[in-house]
Design goal:
About 80% of the residues lie in helices and about 0% in strands. The chain is mostly helical. Helix 6 packs antiparallel against helix 7. The chain is globular and about 40 Å long.
């Protein structure tokens, strides 16, 4: 990896970790399109690996605010759907993965912008988990369905609950990718190199997360995601 490529990825990780730590979503939406442009061979493994320690930290920090019932239903839908994401990886050529990532990012951002306020029931939460299981395993981008379910809940509840759902799902996705030989040393090396940037961004979020209101950050994250996804589609 060239110095310029690493610097760009590190900057994206710092920003993404800060945004997710402050708002509860945004890491994959910010990072994955940038990784897809610079080093598409690192998608989705590097994103998934970096999100595990990040979401473990966010979930632990906000553990008092976790919606255990909602996260349970999401996980129940999320785990079996991981195989659907694996199937997508099997049928989509590596050269077309950027197209899948870009389209998933743009559609998810638009859906999040347009979604009206609602209170999700068990069926909705199961569906959110299933969609996330497929899309996140295949592309590394899984936050928008969670955002749709919790976007109108208190910010502390959104951050902590989404982090727990992410954490469980990412572990499952990586386990499946490992078992099927889709995780390579270079992807893990990149994750290790980018880990200090993750720590910087997550650490900075600690000082502002309690002051951040959901709506403003949500609009900013989704706007960046939309731009990044469109840039990835143009590159394709």
């Amino acid at each position: 990896m060239s110095g310029a490529a690493f610097a760009l990825l590190a900057a994206a990780v710092v920003l993404a970790a800060f945004v997710q730590g402050a708002s509860g979503l945004g890491f994959a939406l910010i990072c994955t399109p940038v990784i897809g442009i610079v080093r598409p061979d690192l998608v989705p493994v590097t994103t998934l690996v970096l999100m595990i320690p990040l979401n473990a930290y966010i979930a632990w920090r906000g553990r008092r605010h976790i919606d255990l019932g909602g996260s349970g239903w999401i996980t129940l839908g999320r785990v079996p759907a991981t195989l659907g994401g694996l199937a997508l990886l099997a049928v989509v050529p590596a050269a077309k993965l950027n197209l899948l990532v870009g389209a998933a990012t743009v559609l998810a951002a638009l859906a999040s912008f347009a979604a009206p306020a609602f209170t999700p029931g068990k069926a909705t939460l199961l569906g959110v988990g299933a969609v996330t299981g497929i899309v996140e395993t295949a592309t590394g981008v899984g936050g928008p369905p969670y955002a749709l379910a919790y976007q109108h809940r208190p910010a502390a509840e959104l951050r902590a609950t989404v982090a727990l759902c992410f954490l469980v799902g990412e572990i499952v996705s990586l386990a499946v990718l490992f078992a099927t030989g889709r995780v390579h040393a270079e992807q893990l090396d990149a994750s290790l190199l980018l880990f200090p940037a993750l720590v910087v961004g997550a650490g900075a979020s600690h000082f502002v997360h309690h002051r951040v209101s959901g709506p403003r950050v949500r609009v900013g994250v989704l706007g960046f995601a939309l731009a990044s996804g469109l840039a990835l589609l143009v590159k394709v």
